[in-house]
Design a protein that fits this description.
2 copies of one chain form a homodimer. Chain A is an all-alpha fold. Chain A is built from 12 helices and no strands. In chain A, helix 6 packs antiparallel against helix 12 and helix 10 packs antiparallel against helix 12. The longest helix of chain A is centred in the last third of the chain and has 23 residues. The N and C termini of chain A lie far apart (about 60 Å). Chain A binds a DNA duplex (18 and 18 nucleotides) through helix 3.
DNA sequence: GTCTATATGGCGATAGAC
DNA sequence: GTCTATCGCCATATAGAC
């Protein structure tokens, strides 16, 4: 490679914008702060991305993709449903361990502008129907406890995502604000969450 | 009563500010919009609350109190631990059914200004220790499955709060953006959540 | 207490030199 | 492509009449 994309100005802007937007959101972020973070000046931001809105959308789309792990291989594998769920919790826990700001960022911005969501989500091919039908089949076969499959999926997502989204709150409550201790706690929680789910759906 | 507090200017401001802040957050809200919502002008906002920051803090403190149901009577009752948990899920589900914006508002603003949290929380006397020790005792007595009591509490909170906080996302995914249908779904979910938790913690 | 008018500063965006 | 300088607007906040 003759040009090192990692060090290109455009890439520096994207990195800086992601860092600022993910923490402070669209409304709370300033172009000046992004420019400082990137080590350039404001004018250059507009030269590359024209408006704050367009810069934000570039970051948002990228992060939405990050936030959706590839569940297809998991749910269309030959694994038992218990193993599929366990694998999903593992993947999602690791993903959010490395991107702890992601959940709150996505929730905040989707709430701010719900319309932009629909369009972007269609592009990402989000389709819970396939996962739900796996659950339905397993329930019909008597492999797991019968329930509304949407509830089961929402429960799995809740247990995986909320503890990360609520980090500032929960680390204060349980660890007197020591975010690093809470972070360690979350990683160890992986096993416990899988047990919690499996204990609940396994027939006795 | 000679003065009707409900119709006082101060109360109109507080109502309007809550409506705007809870939806758009501190950063996304405008004093002009709050003034319009209250049917007054901007200057009067500052006459009563001096700064946007102080007005926001008044709302934030009030909403934090709203967000924390009185769990003492529940957890110090003579009910079985299963019934205590079920009662908690009931209370919290109803609370959030009536205040669906609350979870995301609290998470967003605590993330924005984590320092303000600690002080306010101390004032509210939030002390999970008492709930945790109830769980510990029940686990020691073999009434419920042994686990880290913090995990159990976080699981209960996750299952109760996340589905509400993620309403714009989940109503899009499961109900094509029909928020009212999703809202109904959440209410019916109450039973399912209680079953999910109890199935998981009950010994076989 | 409530209003209109205005001060003050900051932010997104652009012009234009290099 | 990158910079400095600046425009134009909008938001918070204040002054001052009533």
């Amino acid at each position: 490679m003759t040009t090192d994309k990692k060090d290109s100005t455009e890439q520096k802007i994207l990195d800086a914008a992601q860092k600022v937007f993910i923490q402070k959101g669209m409304d709370g972020s300033r172009m000046q702060e992004i420019a400082n973070e990137a080590g350039i000046n404001k004018a250059l931001l507009h030269y590359y991305f024209r408006t704050k809105q367009k810069l934000f959308e570039a970051i948002f789309k990228k992060l939405i993709q990050t936030a959706i792990p590839d569940i297809k291989e998991m749910f269309f594998s030959e694994l038992s449903v218990e193993k599929k769920i366990a694998a999903f919790v593992d993947v999602y826990t690791d993903l959010l361990y490395n991107n702890p700001y992601l959940p709150l960022f996505v929730l905040r911005e989707i709430n701010r502008d719900p319309h932009s969501l629909a369009a972007i989500m269609k592009n990402q091919g989000i389709n819970p129907g396939e996962v739900l039908s796996v659950f339905e089949k397993e329930m019909a076969q008597g492999n797991i406890r019968r329930a509304d499959p949407r509830d089961l999926l929402i429960n799995i997502l809740s247990l995986s995502i909320f503890p990360v989204a609520a980090t500032p709150l929960l680390s204060e409550i349980f660890f007197n604000g020591e975010a690093n201790e809470y972070r360690d706690f979350l990683r160890e929680r992986k096993t416990s969450v899988k047990e919690f789910i499996l204990n609940s759906i396994t027939l006795r």
